[in-house]
Write a structure and sequence with these properties.
Helices cover 38% and strands 23% of the residues. The chain is α/β, with parallel strands linked by helices. It is elongated. 38% of the residues are buried.
Length: 268
């Protein structure tokens, strides 16, 4: 009986070690991704779908902003960096992969009757030259403009595409994510901000710019001009596990996921 018990225990220990071995094998495919808060929610969704079909992979997605993601990629601390702005000259040592295009939507509270602004009016609001809604044909009330923090890819793209050489006024409220900007605008009838088009829902209202509505169709037809690429970045050639995930993102399935989220696919 004792001998049988010992054999049984050895059997269970063997099975246990095999299970742990299999678990370790399943976890060896690790992909770490970090960067843009604009790209992050869409990458999280892509990772969820990817891991269903590839249970041996673990894809970790973290935010931190485009500049942080670029630096992490250059330092080799992540497999893939995310950026929602174009790379600067000294950053172009990185391998750049466009996964889709995104419109930057100028948003107001749904209670705000204004539905169309010129690019110059938007520029002057954020430069602090237009400070009252009365100047735009609404009520006599201060405009509560909201911008992103320095280093944000969304802010960088907004400065390039909307502000040009004008500076964003230092007195404007600063938030550290698209979600925070959206929340401020959703709860303040007098607020205005800018976020990724893919984040616009019935909590906020996206205004037309120079008479053009921010839609996927208008972006495709190059009618809506406030558009930037969503980028994945790698230090040199992607590692095999990172490449497997990137291939999924660029596949028909991955591009359809992005399309359903209101983004413009690169492979459509």
């Amino acid at each position: 009986m004792y001998r049988f018990f010992c054999i049984l225990m050895c059997f269970f220990l063997f099975i246990s070690s095999c299970s742990k071995g299999n678990a370790n094998k399943q976890k060896r495919h690790l992909v770490n991704i970090a960067g843009s808060t604009s790209v992050m929610p869409f990458t999280e969704k892509l990772a969820e779908y990817f891991m269903v079909g590839h249970p041996e992979f673990i894809v970790n997605v973290q935010s931190g902003g485009s500049t942080a993601g670029i630096q992490a990629c250059m330092n080799g601390t992540v497999h893939i960096g995310m950026s929602s702005r174009e790379l600067k000259e000294d950053e172009k040592v990185l391998n750049e992969i466009i996964i889709c295009y995104d419109g930057i939507a100028i948003i107001v509270n749904p209670a705000n009757p204004i539905s169309d602004l010129s690019i110059e009016q938007v520029r002057n609001i954020f430069a602090g030259k237009i400070k009252n809604w009365k100047e735009l044909g609404w009520i006599d009330r201060k405009i509560d403009a909201v911008t992103r923090e320095e280093g944000s890819g969304t802010r960088g793209a907004f400065e390039e595409l909307v502000m040009h050489k004008a500076l964003i006024d230092d007195g404007i409220m600063v938030q550290d994510s698209n979600g925070s900007v959206k929340e401020v605008v959703a709860t303040d009838p007098y607020a205005i901000g800018y976020v990724s088009l893919g984040m616009v829902d019935n909590k906020v209202k996206a205004v037309k710019i120079d008479g053009i509505e921010p839609t996927v169709q208008n972006i495709k037809q190059k009618r809506y001009k406030v558009v930037r690429p969503f980028l994945y970045l790698t230090k040199g050639k992607p590692e095999p596990d990172a490449q497997t995930f990137i291939d999924f993102v660029l596949s028909k399935e991955g591009q359809n996921i992005l399309k359903k989220e209101g983004l413009v696919p690169v492979n459509d």
